[in-house]
Amino acid sequence: MNHSQKRPVNVKARSDLVSEAKALNINLSGVFDAALETAVKAARIAKWQEDNQEAFAAYDKRIESNGVFSAGKRRF
Description:
Elements lengths: L14 H9 L4 H24 L1 H14 L10
């Protein structure tokens, strides 16, 4: 986990959840950081996949045409 310097942000959340979280001593900043980190990671993966879609298609086409290099070696 990256412990970069933190900065204040304004977010809106359901008041009933905030109240219950506080009553249960849940660290809202920690939950927010974890959820945001997960969302950022997922967005990076999606962007990388989108950015590399042409390469994936070219690779798939090459394998379809030529097969994999070890096709004659497999025993399954």
